[in-house]
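Sample A.
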Amino acid sequence: MTTANITFGNISEIARNEQAISGLKGSRKGLSDEITTKKVESYALLIADLATAGVKLKANGLLPTNVSKKLKADLLEAGVTDACVHRYVLNTTGLLRAESKYFEIGRQGASQVLLELDRDGLTTEAKIKERGFGKKDPIEALAKQIVALDDADRVRLDEVIKALEAVKAAEAEAKAKAEADAEANNATIEALEEAAA
């Protein structure tokens, strides 16, 4: 497949969506749903373009380099920001790798892709990304941060952990004492009530 044969017919629509999103960001809550809808619509348009063009992912699960370069260039030229271009390419590729059915659905048009995204619960950019790349393990993320620490920061981390463990132990001891005192008070009250009866 040569780049000359590929036409991304929905690039201008994606750019209009991005411009609309930029304009809406200042108006907060009521517009959040509209922003989300336009983002997901843009993903549907992009998937439809790739599917209609007959693009297939390479063995490594990425878009062919010439397609990726042309797509990025076309989006940038249409006024989409570099960060958005990166997310569109990355997340779309991830979704198509994880769910190849979207290639077939994309050949039926963006509206069908949009319906399928909705059926699959992919109603936000974050959910599309998660489907493509899986959910991040917070423990793994924390472990990566710890591994990146230098020796001085590790010593400090150990100190903070010891202090937090001491606080946790003191809280547990106080809770146990409070429960024991409450039980003793209840036993005393019951004994007094029985004696009075």
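Sample B, a different protein:
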Amino acid sequence: MYITLFAFVIYMNSSALKSAISKLKRECVAPNGASLAKMARRQNCYFVFFRGKQKGPDGKVALYVGSVDDPRYKYWRGMIDRRNQLKAYERALKALEVVNAVQPTKEKPSVEWYTPPKFVDMARSVLGVIDLDPASNPIAQGWVKAEKYYTKDDDGLAQPWAGRVWCNPPYGKFSKLFMERALEFYQSGQVTDCIFLVNRTGAAWYIDLTQQFTAVCQVRKRISFWTPEGKPEGCPRYYNDFLYLGPSLRKFKKVFSDVGKV
């Protein structure tokens, strides 16, 4: 039992244990709320009670008399095992909570990656001026130098966009949301030009959205983004695309053909 509990503490976190406990509690409920002992008696499943043996589902010491192949016995035995497992999980959860209280889990530092200045300068040479950066922070603005920018707290997806936009959005599901937002404001005429830097993906939503952009530059070499300290990413994992919306297709192609296929 101690080895089992130790394994639970090492390999399961509080959330996983609570989920397992909740599932087991549902499985340990007899039909119509009846106790297992009463249910067993109704099904002619007999028990002999005496001291020093396995406790039955009603808390009494019990031993089943009958064939182990009887499905009623298997059901009763399975319920007993699940209830014992439930108790072990609950003890493991308490032990884990004690460990966490004594030695709280350290939060992993949040790492933000920034576009190297040379790529921002390329975007600026196409746009002329960057009026808006909807996914930024004060550090990035040291070289983006947008007339206006939104931080994570501002929530750029909930704010109005206008003019000439540069955007290196948060990756994952947010890339899709920011791309949709750019298309919305471009089609309404509020955004006149827009350049995105995103991770390339073969997802259907990405293919569908990029087809609505004026041009796509598939960067030949994966971009090493910068840390807040100005250090490049050691081993970039993803290939990248620059996406363009606007009337200056010839200028975009001339500038970005140096880094990829447009």
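Observation for Sample B: The first helix runs from residue 2 to 11.
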